[in-house]
Write a structure and sequence with these properties.
There is one protein chain. The chain is an all-alpha fold. The chain folds into three domains: 54 residues, no CATH class; 144 residues, AhpD-like; 53 residues, no CATH class.
């Protein structure tokens, strides 16, 4: 009896070790496959000044994160690009802008994703990011400027912005800032409606679901707790489900780190 139990234990341990080895091998093969599809090069070369760090990085990002959740390569690369734009890690942004184009993201979609950052990270950082992706466009022979995507006029930008803002967020911001002196509260709430939702959310190429998902990733990268919660609700109203939101934040994880990613995950989990 003892001998039989011992054999069972040894067999179980052997199977567990084999399963782990298979997982590790899958991770390596997935990493190589994904990296080549994105960048056209070879991963895990063991070359450079820090091959161990690159080995850990590439296996984790391209062998595991890219296989977590049901997101397309195109969506993953757009998420990665807005995350890197928010962080102002411009050399990495250039690399992933090229990867985004390689997966089939159109230049217009990539540009619109970076434009979507502006209300949340400010115009100077957005201009830096645009300069980085324009450099990639030029290197690939893509003519600039790209086709215009604005849809509003001076006379209707508030109305069109409010048509998007109100179903997602109501008038909460307006109520919270109405007490500011000298009509500054009115001006501030109008700026939000006109600029964020009127000038940007109404633009073509990316739909409301896309823009809300990218905005959530931008806010997660910034670590803005209350705004993350608001945009979780906005995402759900726009048609994204929580599974998509979790996958998007996990896609951000290697770039923003575990604390910011877990913070966003907890907020999503606890927001109804």
């Amino acid at each position: 009896m003892k001998k039989a139990i011992t054999i069972l234990i040894i067999t179980w341990i052997t199977l567990q070790v084999q399963a782990q080895n298979d997982k590790n091998m899958d991770r390596i093969e997935q990493c190589k496959k994904t990296f080549t599809e994105l960048f056209g090069g070879e991963a895990l070369t063991g070359q450079g000044t820090d091959p161990e760090l690159m080995d850990i990085l590439q296996k984790f990002i391209f062998g595991e994160v890219f296989y977590t959740g049901n997101l397309s390569y195109k969506t993953r690369e757009l998420i990665t690009c807005v995350t890197l734009a928010t962080m102002q890690t411009l050399p990495q942004l250039e690399a992933h802008a090229s990867a985004a184009l390689h997966t089939g993201v159109t230049p217009l979609k990539l540009r619109e994703a970076i434009y979507q950052c502006a209300p949340f990270i400010g115009f100077p950082k957005t201009l830096n990011a645009i300069s980085a992706i324009n450099k990639v466009f030029k290197s690939k022979g893509i003519s600039l400027p790209l086709e215009k995507q604005g849809t509003v006029t001076e006379s209707n930008r508030y109305t069109k912005g409010h048509e998007i803002q109100y179903p997602l967020y109501g008038d909460e911001i307006k109520k919270n800032v109405r007490s500011l002196p000298d009509r500054m509260g009115i001006a501030l709430s109008d700026f939000l409606t006109e600029v964020c939702f009127g000038d940007f959310y109404t633009r073509g190429t990316l739909d409301k679901k896309d823009r809300e998902l990218l905005t959530l990733c931008i806010l997660a990268t910034l670590g803005t707790g209350e705004q993350i919660g608001s945009h979780v609700i906005g995402n759900l109203k726009a048609g994204n489900n929580k599974e998509t939101l979790y996958a998007a934040i996990i896609q951000c994880l290697p770039y923003i780190g575990f604390p910011y990613a877990l913070n966003a995950i907890y907020i999503i989990k606890n927001t109804n």
